[in-house]
C-alpha cells in the first residue's frame, strides 16, 4: 500500500510575483479528499537560490521573467536545466546550441549568463531533492506549462534515483493530448500522466494507489503498471463543473516568500492568480485560426458569479492582497450582470486583470473599470479589418482602435499585440497600418510578434487549407530533447511552417515594425496627446502627436459631425443621427466631405467607409453609444 503523502511541485520557469494556481488548486483539491499534501514552489526557490549568488538582484528577477517570456521561443529556460542525470554532459552539443542562439540574435550577455547559471543547476536540484524527501511522500506530482518540462523531468529522474518506489505524476498544459503521451513514452521514470483537467481524475488516481488498486480505467490517464503501459483516451465530457473547482490555497508560496532575500522587491508586485472559467465562448462559435489554447477543452464553462465573488473575498482577506490576475481565456459576459455590478458597488479596491473580446461597448468597459478591472488583454491582434476577417476574430479594425480610445478615456491599461505572418494575409494592409500608426501614438502601443503555429490551432490541424506547409517542430526542440526535430512532432507545441505561395512576411512588414517601434518609444519617453474638450457650440482639440503641436477648434457642422463619430459611424448614419438628435439637416454628401477633411488632418481613424474620432475626451461624462446613439450628450449647434 502506497505512502499516503503527496508532494506537488512547480519548477522554473514561472513568474516569481505569482503563486502557482496549478499548485494552489490541486493543494485545495487533494485536501478536500483528505489526502495529505505539501506544495513546493521551486520556481520561487530558484530565484532565492540565484539571489544568494549574484550581485544585481533586481536584474536577476527581470532575467527570470525574460527567460520564461522573451526567450521561450528559443528554449533557453528548458536548455538551462538539461543537465545530468536527465542528459549526459556534451560540450559539443552545447557549442551547437550557443551558435543557434547567436543565429537567433540573442544578446551575448544573455547567452553568457545562461551558460554560467547552468553550472549551478545540479546544486539547486540537490536542494530540491532533499526538501521533498524530507517529507517522505509516496507521490510527487509535477505541474508543467511553457518552459517547465525539462526542469521537472530532471528533478523527477533524480528523485527516482533516490527512491524508485516513489510514484511520479505529470500534468498541466504541456501534458495535453498527444504531448502528454509523448512525455510518458519517452521518459520511463514517469509513472502516470494526467492529460487534461486534474479535477476529474487526480484525486481518484492517488486514492487508488493508496488503497492498492490499479487506476487503469481513469479517462485520459497514461499509466505505467509494472511492465504494462496504458494510454487511455480522454473522456468526452468533464465529470465536474466549475462550481466543483475549489479556490486555490497559496499558503506555501507566502510561507516561502517570507524567507526570500528579495521579499521587499517581490511583495509589492504580487498578483494572485484566479480562475472563473475555462474554455472560450468565442472559440466555440468561431475558432480563431492561430489559437492553440484549450486543446480538447474549448467548451466554455464558468463559476457561478456568487462563488467567484466569495473566492475573491476569501483570497483577499486570507493573504491581505488586492491585485488579482485572471487566467481565464475570456471574461464571461454574464458577469456584466451577475458579478461586476456587485464589485462596482463595493468599497473594496480590487485591481483585476482579465482577457476580453475587443468589441466592448464603452458602458461595459466603464462597469469593468468600476468593478476593479484595471488591466485588460483584448486579443486585438491587428488593426486591419481584412486580416481580422481572415483570422476569424469577429471584430473590425475600427472596433479595436475604439477600444484603445475608450481605455485611454477611462484609465484602463490595455495589453495587446500585432501578429504578422498569417497565411494569405493581404500584403498591402501592412503599408496601410504603417500609414495609420503615427495618428495613433497617443494610445497604448502594441508589441509586434510573428505568427507561431501552435498545436490545436486550425493552422496546425489543417495547414494546407490555410495555405501553409508545416516543416516540423520549432527548431529549438532538437536542442532541448537532443533528438532530431523531425522526430519530436508528438512532443512539440510550437511548429515551423512556410507559406504555400512562397512569401516571406519579413519582407513586407518592415514599415509597420518601424512605425510600431517609434510608437512604443514615444509612448514611453515622450507621451503624445490628442485631447478633446467641449465648449458651448464648439469642440477644442489639442494635438501633440506630431513635431509641431497644434490646436483645432471645430464649429458648426464640423463640430456636430466630430461629436457624432465618437463611437464610429459612416456618412449616412451620421446624417441620420444629426437629424434625430439635433434636427440638423446635413446631407450624407456634406458629412462625407467633412469626414474626409478630418482624415486629411489625422483626426479620425478610417476603416473603409466608417470613421472614428481619435481625440480622447479628457472629461468623459459617462455617455455611451448605447445611451445616446452614436455620440455623447449632444451639443446644440446653430448653423
Automatic annotation (TrEMBL):
Boundaries of every B12-binding domain copy: 83-216
Pfam families: Radical_SAM (PF04055)
InterPro entries referenced in this protein's UniProt entry, alphabetically: BchE-like, Cobalamin-bd, Elp3/MiaA/NifB-like_rSAM, rSAM, rSAM_horseshoe, rSAM_ocin_1, rSAM_sf
This protein's UniProt keywords: Iron, Iron-sulfur, Metal-binding, S-adenosyl-L-methionine
Signal peptide: none
Origin: domain of life: Bacteria
The UniProt record lists the keyword DNA-binding: no
PROSITE patterns per UniProt: B12_BINDING (PS51332)
Essential cofactor(s): [4Fe-4S] cluster
Alphabetized PANTHER family for the sequence: ANAEROBIC MAGNESIUM-PROTOPORPHYRIN IX MONOMETHYL ESTER CYCLASE-RELATED, BLL1977 PROTEIN
Name the record gives this protein: Radical SAM superfamily protein
Gene source species: Stieleria magnilauensis
Amino acid at each position: 500500500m502506497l505512502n499516503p503523502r503527496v508532494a506537488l511541485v512547480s519548477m522554473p520557469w514561472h513568474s516569481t510575483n505569482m503563486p502557482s494556481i496549478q499548485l494552489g488548486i490541486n493543494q485545495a483539491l487533494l485536501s478536500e479528499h483528505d489526502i495529505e499534501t505539501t506544495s513546493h514552489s521551486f520556481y520561487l526557490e530558484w530565484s532565492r537560490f540565484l539571489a544568494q549568488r549574484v550581485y544585481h538582484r533586481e536584474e536577476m528577477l527581470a532575467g527570470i521573467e525574460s527567460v520564461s517570456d522573451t526567450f521561450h521561443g528559443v528554449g533557453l529556460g528548458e536548455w538551462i536545466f538539461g543537465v545530468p542525470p536527465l542528459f549526459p554532459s556534451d560540450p559539443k552539443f552545447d557549442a551547437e546550441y550557443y551558435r543557434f542562439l547567436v543565429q537567433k540574435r540573442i544578446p551575448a550577455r544573455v547567452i553568457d549568463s545562461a551558460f554560467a547559471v547552468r553550472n549551478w543547476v545540479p546544486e539547486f536540484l540537490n536542494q530540491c531533492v532533499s526538501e521533498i524527501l524530507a517529507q517522505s511522500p509516496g507521490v510527487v506530482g509535477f505541474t508543467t506549462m511553457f518552459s517547465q518540462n525539462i526542469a521537472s523531468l530532471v528533478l523527477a529522474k533524480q528523485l527516482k534515483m533516490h527512491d524508485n518506489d516513489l510514484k511520479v505524476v505529470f500534468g498541466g498544459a504541456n501534458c495535453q493530448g498527444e504531448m502528454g503521451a509523448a512525455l510518458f513514452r519517452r521518459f520511463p521514470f514517469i509513472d502516470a500522466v494526467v492529460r487534461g483537467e486534474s479535477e476529474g481524475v487526480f484525486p481518484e488516481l492517488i486514492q487508488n494507489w493508496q488503497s492498492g488498486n490499479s487506476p487503469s480505467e481513469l479517462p485520459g490517464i497514461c499509466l505505467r503498471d509494472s511492465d504494462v503501459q496504458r494510454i487511455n483516451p480522454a473522456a468526452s465530457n468533464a465529470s465536474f463543473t466549475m462550481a466543483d473547482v475549489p479556490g486555490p490555497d497559496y499558503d506555501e508560496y507566502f510561507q516561502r516568500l517570507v524567507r526570500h532575500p528579495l521579499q521587499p522587491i517581490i511583495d509589492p508586485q504580487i498578483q494572485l492568480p484566479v480562475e472563473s472559467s475555462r474554455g472560450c465562448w468565442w472559440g466555440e462559435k468561431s475558432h480563431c485560426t492561430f489559437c492553440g489554447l484549450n486543446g480538447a477543452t474549448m467548451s466554455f464553462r464558468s463559476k457561478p458569479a456568487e462563488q467567484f465573488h466569495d473566492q475573491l473575498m476569501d483570497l483577499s482577506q486570507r493573504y491581505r492582497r488586492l491585485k488579482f490576475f485572471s487566467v481565464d481565456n475570456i471574461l464571461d459576459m454574464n458577469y456584466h450582470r451577475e458579478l461586476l455590478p456587485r464589485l462596482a458597488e463595493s468599497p473594496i479596491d480590487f485591481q483585476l486583470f482579465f482577457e476580453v473580446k475587443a468589441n466592448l461597448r464603452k458602458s461595459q468597459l466603464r462597469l469593468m473599470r468600476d468593478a476593479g478591472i484595471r488591466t485588460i488583454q483584448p486579443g486585438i491582434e491587428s488593426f486591419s479589418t481584412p486580416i481580422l476577417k481572415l483570422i476569424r476574430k469577429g471584430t473590425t479594425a475600427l472596433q479595436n482602435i475604439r477600444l484603445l480610445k475608450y481605455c485611454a478615456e477611462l484609465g484602463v491599461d490595455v495589453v495587446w499585440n500585432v501578429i504578422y505572418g498569417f497565411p494569405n494575409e493581404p500584403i498591402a494592409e501592412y503599408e496601410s497600418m504603417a500609414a495609420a500608426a503615427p495618428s495613433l501614438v497617443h494610445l497604448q502601443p502594441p508589441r509586434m510578434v510573428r505568427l507561431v503555429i501552435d498545436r490545436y490551432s486550425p493552422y496546425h490541424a489543417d495547414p494546407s487549407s490555410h495555405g501553409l506547409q508545416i516543416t516540423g517542430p520549432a527548431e529549438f526542440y532538437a536542442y532541448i530533447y537532443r533528438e532530431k526535430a523531425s522526430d519530436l512532432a508528438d512532443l512539440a507545441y510550437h511548429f515551423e511552417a512556410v507559406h504555400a505561395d512562397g512569401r516571406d512576411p519579413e519582407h513586407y512588414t518592415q514599415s509597420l515594425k518601424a512605425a510600431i517601434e517609434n510608437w512604443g518609444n514615444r509612448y514611453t519617453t515622450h507621451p503624445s496627446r490628442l485631447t478633446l474638450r467641449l465648449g458651448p457650440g464648439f469642440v477644442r482639440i489639442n494635438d501633440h502627436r506630431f513635431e509641431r503641436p497644434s490646436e483645432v477648434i471645430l464649429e458648426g457642422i464640423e463640430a456636430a459631425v466630430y461629436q457624432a463619430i465618437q463611437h464610429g459611424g459612416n456618412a449616412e448614419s451620421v446624417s441620420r443621427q444629426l437629424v434625430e438628435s439635433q434636427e440638423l439637416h446635413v446631407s450624407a454628401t456634406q458629412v462625407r466631405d467633412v469626414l474626409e477633411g478630418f482624415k486629411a488632418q489625422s483626426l479620425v481613424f478610417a476603416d473603409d467607409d466608417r470613421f472614428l474620432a481619435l481625440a480622447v475626451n479628457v472629461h468623459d461624462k459617462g455617455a455611451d453609444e448605447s445611451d445616446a446613439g452614436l455620440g455623447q450628450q449632444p451639443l446644440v449647434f446653430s448653423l
